Amino acid sequence: MRGLVPFYRGLYILSNRQARRKAGTVGSRCGFCGTQSNSKQQPSFGLLFDIDGVLVRGRMPIPAAKKAFEKLVDSQGQFVVPLVFVTNAGNCLRQTKADQLSHILGVPITQDQVIMSHSPLRMFKKFHDKCVLVSGQGPVLEIAKNVGFKNVVSIDILRESYPLLDMVDHNRRPKLPSNPVGNLPKVEAVVLFGEPIRWETNLQLIVDVLLTNGNLSSVHKTQKMPHLPLLACNMDLMWMAEAHSPRFGHGTFLVCLENIYKKITGKDLKYEALMGKPSELTYHFAEYLIRSQAMQRQWKLPITSLYAIGDNLMTDIYGANLYNRYLDERVARKNPKAIAKMVAATGSTTAVPQEEEVDNMWESELALPSATSCKSVLVCTGVYNPKAEVPCDANHCIKETVFHGHRDFRFDPALVEPGHIVQDVAEAVDLIFEQEKFVPQ
């Protein structure tokens, strides 16, 4: 990632100068507003906030977060613009995350303003009646049922039913010879919510399910293709908590799973879908929620611009720019050349589903977007480090940049270039209000 720094350093300095100039004008016009009236300015834009590294570091709030949200609510405690929180976390329900955010920010947040990495699974109705194996941590069975799955098996249930399959930890091995317990239904799909606690157990049992086609009483069939459908949420290789350096995320777990599967079978692991940032699925869902909020508030102007605020080049910025590219090319996507351009940019047909499939699923569930642009805003309070060492030859280094995105997303320098760089989320809100000439009253 260091090879990208020179390109963004200039943007960072420029944005900071602009932010300082704007602070005097914007700061005096933002904050709490009067009572709602017909003459009040209505927004034509919506905000997408990342959480970790933008609003919090682990459990600690970032000071600028509360300041930012004081500018986003009026005197009645209502938001002056539609907004959603888009996180790649997947270890809790949306309502739980909404409650946490309400406590941190001091403003009421509803679950309809929160998108977890697993939220788009609601659209995959063809899997909701199948028996699915889920991996992750937290209340995974409750989460799965909350997004629509009716027949769910967890890794723990699978391990208890087949105790001889989990053998890495000697202390957890059966003390006496044992046979499979219970009569579990055949697993028909695998859903990965987020990084689990015992990686060795999860990796072993997921590979077992894939290589036995869901029948764990049988032996591995390494030549059988294709394997069971696999849906994964949250591709973050790393994320920012209280530690000085980023921590492993679910993307690291996926790297392990993909490489183990390929080492055993000689074939690439295939995904039915990848969700969470930077997947377009997540941004479609976010745009739908933004549009729904505007309708509920009876704002008449269509929401034509989205601003995505994040701290990670490879997820927040890549995802916002990828969705912006989709919005730019949506009308032309039936053109084979346009589709080929999208696939070439991402390197993945998984990342860019077939047009007919996309339209059928997204239009039936969410309707087509009203937004025509999605602009990216990078903050310096999380994963991104504006003080990283500058390479001597930037043009050479950018071609050799280590890509921290998922295997199925190709590195494209244009997709990791932020539209704006600011110090923190409060500066981001100031900048956006200025860009939109929006003056809360």
From TrEMBL:
| Pfam families named among the record's database cross-references | Hydrolase_6 (PF13344)
Please state which protein family the record places this protein in: Belongs to the HAD-like hydrolase superfamily.
Q: Which GO terms describe its cellular component?
A: mitochondrion
Secretion signal: which residues? none
What are the protein's UniProt keywords?
Answer: Signal
In which organism is this protein found? Seriola lalandi dorsalis
| UniProt name for this protein | Haloacid dehalogenase-like hydrolase domain-containing 5
InterPro entries reported for this sequence: CDP-alcohol_PTase-I, HAD-like_sf, HAD-SF_hydro_IIA, HAD-SF_hydro_IIA_CECR5, HAD_sf
Q: Does the keyword Signal apply?
A: yes
Record Gene3D superfamilies = HAD superfamily/HAD-like
A GO BP annotation: glycerophospholipid biosynthetic process
* Classification via NCBIfam families: CECR5, HAD-SF-IIA
